[in-house]
Every structure is written in C-alpha cells, then in structure tokens.
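Anyone able to model this chain together with cytidine-5'-triphosphate?
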Amino acid sequence: MLTGRIITVGIAGGIAAYKSAELVSGLVKAKAKVRVIMTEGAQNFIRPMTFSALTGNAVFTDMFADNHGGVTHIELAQNADLLVVAPATANIIGKVANGIADDMLSTVILAASCEVVFCPAMNTVMYKNPVVQQNIKKLRQLGYAFIGPNSGQLACGSTGPGRMSEPHEILHHIKQMFTAGDLEGVKILVSAGPTREPIDPVRYISNRSSGKMGYSIAKAARDRGAKVVLVSGPVNLPPPEGVTVIKVETALQMRRAMLENFPDSDVVIKSAAVADYRPKSVSDKKIKKSHDPMVLAMEKNPDILAELGRMKGNQVLVGFAAETGKLDEYARLKLRQKNLDLLVANDVSVPGAGFDVDTNIVKIFNRNGTVIDLPMMTKEEVAKHILDLVARYRSEQSGE
Ligand code: CTP
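re: yes, here you go
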C-alpha cells in the first residue's frame, strides 16, 4: 500500500530522533520512496549517514548545499505524497504555526502541497505550555495532522504526555492514511466460514473453517469505505458493525445468497470453505445406530465460485484455494477453470496457515500471471494485502 509512495520524513532536534531510524527503515521496508530532511539540532542526536544508509539517498540538511542531486526545497515540498515530522519539537511546531521558514525543514513544510503530519516529542511541561498547545490547536485547525504524543516516562526523567509515538504506531497510521477511502462506495460481497450439510436433525458434515479470514476482509473493506455484504456460514465471531450480514448454513443456502447479491456487486471475495458434497437424503428423524457399518450416500454441491465465474461481467472475482500440496499447480488451475481475477492460495497443512488459526501464509495469483508470495502474517494483514491488490486491479481495469 505504500509501494512507490514518496514520503518525506522531517527530523527535528529532539532525543526521539533516534526512533526515527526505525520509522524510516519501516517505510523503506514497506517499499515507500523515502527522503529525509534533518534540522541542525537533529544532527546532534543522530548522524545523517544513518538515514542515507537506510534510504540510499542523500539527506537534506542545508537549504544552500549543492549535494542534493539537483532536488530543490520546492521539489521536495511539491513531489511528496506525505510529509511526516518525527520528532516534531516545540520549536518546529511553533515555527510552522507562525509561518517561519528559516531552514530546510520549516521551508519545505510551508511549501508542501501534500498532507503534513506532526509526531510531537518534548518534555511534558513544554508540551503543556499554553503557547505550544495554542500552536498545536492552530495547526490542527489549519488541517495539519498529528500522531501522538504518548504519555509515559520521558528521556528527561519526567512522566506525562510528550513521548513520541512508537515507530510502529506511526507506520500503522501512515498506512491507514493511504488506504482509508480507496474503496469508497465500492460494493463488495464476501463469503466466509464453513457450510454445514445436515445428515439428520442432530448431525451434520462440516469443516474446520473459522471464518476469521472472511470476517477480516469484510472489516478491512468496510474501513476503506466499501459497502460490504457478508454471507456467512456458522461461525463463532460477532457480526462486524457496518456490514450487512446474511447468515446461512448449507452450501445451497450460500449459493442462493451469493447469486442474489452478485448482480449488485463490484467485487466478490469468496473465502468460504464450501462443502463439496452433501448427504443425498436428510433424515427427518435422528438416525439410530445399528450393528452394521454405516454408509452415507453423498451428492455433489454446486461450485458457487465457478458459477459466478461463468456469469461474471466486469466484476472482480477473488477465490481462495485450500491445498495440502502442489499449491502452484492447483492454484493456477482453479484460477483458470473458475475464471477468477485473483486467487489466494494457502497450504493448510503448514503450521501458521489455514483453518482456525489467527495467521496465514498465502500466495496470491493474478490472472495476468503475476504471483505475490507473502510471509506468515495475521489474517488482518492478509486481508489488507488482498484489498490492496483488488484496489490496484480495479484501477488497472478502468485504465487509471
Ligand atoms: N467453492 C465454491 N463452491 C464449492 C466449492 C468451493 O464456491 N462448492 C469456492 C471456495 O469458496 C473457494 C474456491 O472455490 O473460493 C476453492 O475452494 P477449494 O475448497 O480450495 O477448492 P475446490 O474448488 O472445492 O477444489 P478441491 O476441493 O478439489 O481442491
């Protein structure tokens, strides 16, 4: 989600400057293009070389130096997708609030046309000083964003608000800023959980699916502005707020709900583990045991996803594949046979992947042939990656 985004990190002179190395490293790992500006004060706490090593780019420290490869302060200010000031000292906050541009960082902030985020870090008494509070209030009113500060033990020994947010918290906020609303108004139909195929009034055939993957997708899509309909098999998860939930039990009920909602959807994500077979006849009385072995005749359930694939116009269709071997081969086959745009495949026999755990290890196959191999991560993170790819696929389709 940060791939290729140009993020400028401004580092002012506070002890929290050392934490900015972790922030910059996290942004680089997330594949953002990172440029760093340091004030003179910041260089007393950490050397520019740390950041040039992390980013592979020269660090901007001086308005009038000519070692910036021809990039001027105006280009720095205009060609960024986001400007993060971390740590933001009382000094830099005060300068910006009062329109002062007397060094590289303050000048770039004043000339910026992208969103600017401050991550304050200072002594508690300074932070509480009405002058600083007024400056922060003024900047907020003018549309500048703030992350933190946190409360806790400060480097100067005092305790209270003024501690810069942790790099992972800042990173999380930044990622949210880029994804919030990118699926605004998009209608997404998600299926989740197992199906239950009844044998008699007290027994059924089902599988180990917990529904966690599908519910994570539904919630993440809702947070990004989508209108979400979630068709859910029986699971032990609370219905996500702001999502229309349709509860079903059997594969046939799931099929009906999916077909009803399909024509009105822009994207369909089919993470449910649908039973491939159902008992041929359902006894209306509890089946009594006998001395003979029991044979249960089963008949095939319809393949809902394949059916949607045959009907699909320009909807984006995302399927899942749960495999226990030959993952790539089966995944490519399912992608083609079911006419999918994206297929999320996992080897459910690997620890940390698949049913009823909080993490997953997936490979995502795109119909254009590209494959993304993700490491083990939480199902929430997998959901974000899937939606990133859906958003990208949609914008490629519409030629943006
Ligand atoms: N699926 C479906 N209807 C079915 C079976 C599967 O819609 N009757 C969907 C699942 O929701 C999933 C995808 O098809 O998105 C793949 O499911 P999976 O169980 O991995 O594969 P199958 O197609 O059932 O093939 P097999 O069980 O032979 O691996």
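The longest helix spans residues 379-397.
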